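W.,

You were right to be curious about this one. When I first looked at the sequence I had no strong expectations either way, so I just let the prediction run and decided to look at it fresh. Below is the sequence, 299 residues in total, followed by the output.
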Amino acid sequence: MWFKNLHIYRLPKPWAIDPARLEEQLSTLTLQGCSATDAQSFGWVPPRDGGGLVHSVNNQLLLALGVEQKLLPASVVNQFAKDKAKEIAEAEGRKVGRKEMREIREQTTLELLPRAFVRRRTTWGWIDPANGWLVVDAAAVGKAEEFLEHLRKSVEGMPARLLKVNQSPAAAMTGWVADGDAPAGFTLDQDLELRSAEEAKVRYVKHALEGEEIRRHIAGGKTATKLAMTWNDRISFLLTEDLQVKRLAFLDLLKEENENQSDNEDERFDLDFTLMAGEVARLLDDLVAALGGEPAADA
């Protein structure tokens, strides 16, 4: 259980939540699967087969939002709708108007949905009640918001909010690159994206960041919007201007510490989750400190 993309939310620290109570709340919105006419369906699923909706290990909580989606390409709907419109035009000797064509597409969609393939995906969320973290593993903002939306529907008064820091990540990353000096505990890697006020972008991939060319871009007004970094030789990642942590990679040195401790699949899952949660919590603490801490009103 290793997260790859972190959308970071703050909870009260500590957050007094009873896993059994949380399980009861999530049970009101479990995944039911798509009906014949549903385009998609959302709901909580057990993070582990045969387990509960809240997987708790050493006071770390793992949740899973299941999503079923009908695969019905627009091109298929349009073709069937055009064929239907052609039949109407030929049978009635008239042209099908825009409003009627829209209605035909809607009706065609309803007729085709029961025949569509169903795809299921899962979005994972980790809650650290003691340290006040809610982290959603999602590559896209929409999927993270989808997770949080359903959590708020399940848990009345859910206090999660986006993490805020005193220094903007863009300003901090630009300074680190310009100075060639990462904050304590971090090193700068070799991927960087710079952007000007006019939205012109320059990307460096596997490129040393010490060159004069990069400093000229920064002196000319470009700011860093993405920067690859490594934390304590244990986790590499890409930090974005929106305070998202992407491409999270747990380095071999870290994973070796957890190897050969168990051959049991369930035990291995729990060991990996425990290690991941502990390391990421420390990474987030150091990252927040490197960005000037959190505003006093949000502490």
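Here's what jumped out at me. The chain has eight helices and twelve strands. And, maybe more interesting for your project: The mean pLDDT is 88.

Coffee later to discuss?

I.
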